[in-house]
Amino acid sequence: MKKQNELGKKKTKKTWIAYLWSAPSLLLILLIVIFPILYTGYISFTNMNVYHWTNYTWNGFDNYKDALLVLDNGFIAALMFTVLWTVVNMVLQLVIAYVLASLLNIKNLKLRNLYKTLLIFPWAMPGYVSILLWKTGMFNSQFGLLNQWLVKAGFEPVRWLAGDVIAFVCCTVVNLWLALPFMITIIDGALQSIDQSFYESAKLDGAGWFKSTYYITVPMIKAIITPAVVITAFTTFKQFDVIYLLTQQVGAKTGADLHTILTYAYEKAFITNNYGYSSAISILIFILLIGLSTLMNRQNKRAEVDE
Amino acid sequence: MKRAWSALVALVLIAGLFGGCGSLNGKAESGVTSGTSDSTGTAGTNGTDTKEEGPVTITIWHDKEDAVAEVLAESLKTLEPDIVVVLEKKSNMTEALKTVGNDPNVAPDMYFFAHDKIGVYAEMGILTPITDILPAEELSGYMENTIKAATYKGEIYQLPIYYETLLFMYNRLYMKEDEVPATTEALYDYMVENTKGGHYGFIEQHSTPYYAAGWINGFGGSILSEDGVPGLDSAETIAALEYHKKFVDLMPGETEYATVNTLFNKGMAHSTIAGPWLIPTLRDNGIEVGVAAMPVIDKTGIAISPYMGVQGIQVLKYAAANKAEAVEKVLRQIMDVNLQVELALISGCAPASEACYEMEEITSDEVVMAMKETAEHAVPMPNVPEMDVMWTVVGNLLTDVNMSGKDVGESAKEAQKEAEQLIENMQ
């Protein structure tokens, strides 16, 4: 009994020491992650705006009442679009990244490192620069490379970002260009972690490429790539820059009417300089994301239990 | 040893975390010479408190090109040693001022910027009327339009230096002087005749509010009135949008700056409406650019009336209260007519002071005089805070009408409703 007590005390002491060593990191997280969220929450209950910059007062749930008006048909349409955008991008990212990572792992592949460097290149460039390069260098109807090819081939030039469907395809291409390096790197690493003897045994048992992939590769890389997939899914869900810079930028609108929940909230709230109101919208989107995150975690846990 | 080392690292990390929270309060900057510096962050330097002995430092934030800042700095050096002026370049000044404008430790004493944000900062309570420092009658020598631009709710908040308006420009290689259209219908005929084979008779950023405003104002419509009321569904604005559309149909689909200006710059467009800032690049590229008066809209008899932006000095409240004498001296130095001429010419804009137009170097400048002519019917860009939401709403309206082919009347009504809702949400 006494020994058990001593063990318990030792464990408590160890836990406290662990917390102590983690304190600087926790403090940093508190300052740069938790504090801004709490402060945004606080501002969302005030009337802080251009007219009440320093003399703002508490106004309860007024901003939330106004913010819920933003969640109108336009918001629902934007939410639906965001879900579609996320699903299409995630499926394409996983399939393309898997194919490319598999190709990179072909035995005796020459210039493997060169290919890897080239594939990682889009990641090294700032997203803003990449997006605007795509916009002016590829999609521009006057000077873009795509139209130059079309005209040389005898076709009429196309306004690539003018219609909703065609702009959606173009935005997806740019998003894939930006996101694939990360996914390829993760899947490539995961593929390399699989012991080759599994494939050799499967081959002896007569399994082909499809069966090896389905029964060996996918189950073995699933646990490794799941966090990356979850992170990328959220990054895609809260996408702003690709859609905004390609189609919505003030002074450079293209005619496409694509809106994710963030570009929609930006046009309906953030341009008003009403910080209380914008904060309330941010908190509502934050709650939505937390809800989705919880849902995804539960799904993952359920899938693990089923396995 | 390992533990001691870890503890030391942790301590340094914590100290580092809080190191940035230190106050700059009362930190003197004596010894800083007049000149310019670059900064992209929000933190600035305020300078010496007047209660301290020694020179008074006045910090001016600006977003101007280096040549303009250098001319200004050189002139303000004459105030030394009593007053040391530091010009600090800010890349994101509007946001920086919102963040630190009421913090005397980091805010500047003045800033050199366009007039259109005056309403926002006046409502935030960080600006002082310029007439609190200079008698109002001393501003009577400035062009009426520039003083109107600097006025918000009856108070003048800016000392104007120079202004800019859009100009009608043409490529002399394609458009001869006698072909320059005097009216919009003549322009349309020219466009029909010359828009072919990858060439355009006329181009502009047709679906960008700043450019479309000229057509709307020329019809007697408005994007936003002086007191912040949107005018998107007025009969005049709708008529302007409907009339403008036939010109848009003969222009490229893209409306952004890069495409439009590159087309003109590469000699693929015969004429354009663009800002004076484009002229040096055009000349460098060998384009023989001509500048003419804006075409008169046949239907109204009024010329295309673009927005006018006035660049000048605004004074922050803290500086006006604590460094009044130094601030006044700096303003008086900036009011020097020769300096205003030099600043206007180097920036490619037109001086705000009427006295400058009696000087040879101004009257002989074709671009400046064209701007003066355009300014006679130009409309100062609204400086009320409500304008912040109008850029997006009008941008969407123009895109709907010009690029998506939606009905003008219905789109205008929807845009008006949205603008009113957003303005209500600002409060």
Any descriptors?
A: 307 residues, mainly alpha, MetI-like fold, flat, B: D-Maltodextrin-Binding Protein, domain 2, 9-stranded mixed sheet, 3-stranded antiparallel sheet, 17 helices, 42% helix
What coarse outline of chain A follows from CA principal-axis ratios?
flat
Q: What's the CATH C level of the largest domain in chain B?
A: Alpha Beta
Reported for the largest beta sheet of chain B, the result is: 9 strands, mixed
Strand content of chain A: under 5%
Q: Average the pLDDT over all residues of chain B and give the rounded result.
A: 86
Write structural notes for this entry.
The complex is a heterodimer of chains A (307) and B (427). Chain A is an all-alpha fold and 307 residues long. Chain A has a domain of 196 residues: MetI-like fold. Chain A contains twelve helices and no strands. In chain A, helix 3 crosses helix 7 and helix 3 runs antiparallel to helix 9. By secondary structure, chain B is an alpha/beta fold. Chain B folds into two domains: 204 residues, Periplasmic binding protein-like II (D-Maltodextrin-Binding Protein, domain 2, 3-Layer(aba) Sandwich); 189 residues, D-Maltodextrin-Binding Protein, domain 2 (3-Layer(aba) Sandwich), CATH 3.40.190.10. Helix content of chain B is 42%, strand content 15%. In chain B, the strands form three sheets. In chain B, strands 1, 2, 3, 4, 5, 8, 12, 13 and 14 form a nine-stranded mixed beta sheet that branches. Chain B has a three-stranded antiparallel beta sheet with strand order 10-9-11. In chain B, helix 7 packs across helix 8. The longest helix of chain B is centred in the C-terminal third of the chain and has 19 residues. Chain B is globular and about 70 Å long. In chain B, 49% of the residues are buried.
